[in-house]
């Protein structure tokens, strides 16, 4: 019979609590939970001394780091999920950023959890319907699945904003299936976003485009390809198209050339093309609104 293997550290000695802690932390971005510290053999007093000595640094309640460096956003996200306990995952803005499919950001870290938590700098969304099938991982960080992200985003985004998230997910070969959202009050937003995606809309791509849709105008087609070009806003019956140009976009020669070609093709097919700087839409929306309405009124459907 083979002898029992004794787990030892350096030079045949049993690992010290600090060695155990470093081993655990090395597998999870230099993070360790209070429970793991206790399992490593530390008492509350031992933990407090290491915090005072700078060996451990508190990140969130119940979560510490062994690193002295500034923690990355991804590491902070992992720490937030650890602080919320088993079954929790990054959600909403933080999750969309990690997938690389959302332009929306927040100063808070969003976490969905089956239990209630209050953490500084973290927005915890308690969900009684959250299951293990709603959670996956990216680079070792628990996150909601893409379908669950759509459902959560429908609570905070417009249909056109969510349509852009779906569009970016399709580009990344991620799920673009309409998720079930029984009992959720956001079902209309969800359904509208997927309808827009099915119609070829890329949704809104910028805050200026969001602001344009907030103007009191008839609803246009938004970022749908027409005549080989994606057009920001288009009213096909009135033959009117609107482009909203950002600062960097205007300064790039190739962007200006592409814009000129798009405008030329649209005008050749009978369109009136209006262009507005993003700043005009954001800060002088009433002027933009009047000009578009005037143009629509003189371009009636044939």
UniProtKB/TrEMBL annotation:
<dbReference type="InterPro" id="IPR007569">
    <property type="entry name" value="DUF559"/>
</dbReference>
<dbReference type="Pfam" id="PF04480">
    <property type="entry name" value="DUF559"/>
</dbReference>
<dbReference type="InterPro" id="IPR025159">
    <property type="entry name" value="AbiEi_N"/>
</dbReference>
<feature type="domain" description="AbiEi antitoxin N-terminal">
    <location>
        <begin position="19"/>
        <end position="65"/>
    </location>
</feature>
<dbReference type="Pfam" id="PF13338">
    <property type="entry name" value="AbiEi_4"/>
</dbReference>
<dbReference type="InterPro" id="IPR011335">
    <property type="entry name" value="Restrct_endonuc-II-like"/>
</dbReference>
<feature type="region of interest" description="Disordered">
    <location>
        <begin position="1"/>
        <end position="20"/>
    </location>
</feature>
<protein>
    <submittedName>
        <fullName>DUF559 domain-containing protein</fullName>
    </submittedName>
</protein>
<feature type="domain" description="DUF559">
    <location>
        <begin position="229"/>
        <end position="295"/>
    </location>
</feature>
